[in-house]
Amino acid sequence: MSIKRPTVEEVKTAALEIGIHFTESEATTYHKLMQGQLDAFDLVDSMDIQLPEVKYPRHSGIKPSSENNPYNAWAVKTTIQGASDGKLSGKTIAIKDNVCVAGVPMSNGTSILEGYIPDVDATIVQRFLDEGGTILGKSNCEYYCASGGSHTSHNGYVENPTVPGFNAGGSSSGSSALVAAGIVDMATGGDQGGSIRIPASYCGIVGLKPTHGLVPYTGVFAVELTLDHAGPITRTVADNALMLEVMAGADGLDPRQKGAVSQPYSEAVNKGVKGLRVGIVPEGFGTPGAEIEVDERVMEAAKKLEAKGAIIHTISIPLHAVGAAIWTPIFLEGTYDLMMRNNSYGTNMKGLFVEGLMDAQSNWKEKADELSETMKLGMLTGHFTSSRTKGRYYGKAQNLNRLMTADYDRALSEVDVLLMPTTPMAATRLPEKDAGAEEIIARAFEMVGNTAPTCATGHPSISVPVGKTSDDRPIGAMLIAKYHDEMTLFSAAQVLEASYS
């Protein structure tokens, strides 16, 4: 199929869009000159590309009825059986609906992508199947993954199975609900501001945001290249370590990765914490909206680590207190540029471009009025600031991010792991269906203060349950480690898990 050739008048119009004022004669000249360059586009269009092989048979699946979809956690149910044996043999897996599974519909929680069916498996999907896992379907997620609450998906609210009527957390809402309810053993999550760790905390399960670039993002709907993380959500620390073993490592296709290597994370699970230096970060406690019980339970978790031989310190990270503010321009302007203006791929990067996904995403403006309240606000702010200030604030935030990263690195040179609440509050009630934009936005972003900073810095962090509030809402503690030191995270997380089992 040939690329559509412009008319002379369209050349003049396109030139005006980039500030060039052609006369009729100049437009005619440049119209002719463009033809040879556009011939190259035609040649590219006529050539075949080599996509990764889709190895395992599957059917497109079904959208389950409400009776067969407890907590509204499934987007699509199907069954894809992997290899006959492997590390994940006997394990059932839910794939967050921002991840490509060939032949199975993918909506990313939106109305905009409805009807899109990927023709490739994401790298992590292929790895699960090669290691014998069984995929049971796609889990619901929030609209374009832009919410820490479970109430913004086009597919409806996702309910917390641990505390009925309450928020399951987001954006990996369906994944966490399915794991917490025991419907699957493990699920994928994505984390640009806390979207693995927030729902894990709210649902009382284990969620890990790995080191940036450790897990390939190939075939996952991109949000912002410097913030994108994919990781495991499980009921136990042991399963989390096992799942990461399969997910991690370079695939040669993701530009976020730089020599990423998987490690035998399962070996860390029973190593204990004797001599481990744990730093309590005061800036992570008593934050806006914090519940006293949450802070108290996390401090008690530190004492449990100390009782098992850890050495407890208090260590300040001053820039953590403003970390969410530093993250905000990066998230809003970067997301608007990559995800919306450039259809989730853009330019200036190598890797696997999923052309069908780009085509499906390119229609978003036609349905912009259907965006969630969180997306409308985020895109409005991101567009306004980036277009009026020439990207200055994105750049300054990234410069400040270097300082915040150094602040974390300094702290982690003095201790082995950092400790703070995952979220300042336990799960909140789901908004009423007719809630206004103010409440919807509040319930979507009130909890990101501790999780967002490490998305910007890229340090690995894990949420592990450390008890409940007096009204039985789960509480998560977050541990943060040096780059590529997930082994230490799993050792400490397992000790905490054992202390509360």
Automatic annotation (TrEMBL):
Q: What is this protein called?
A: Amidase
Matching entries from NCBIfam families are given as: PRK07235.1
Name all Amidase domain ranges.
Answer: 78-489
Domain of life here? Bacteria
Record-linked SUPFAM superfamilies: Amidase signature (AS) enzymes
- What Enzyme Commission number does this protein have? 3.5.1.4
GO MF annotations, alphabetized:
amidase activity
Signal peptide positions are: none
Kindly state which keywords UniProt assigns to this record, in alphabetical order.
Hydrolase
A Pfam family that this protein carries is Amidase
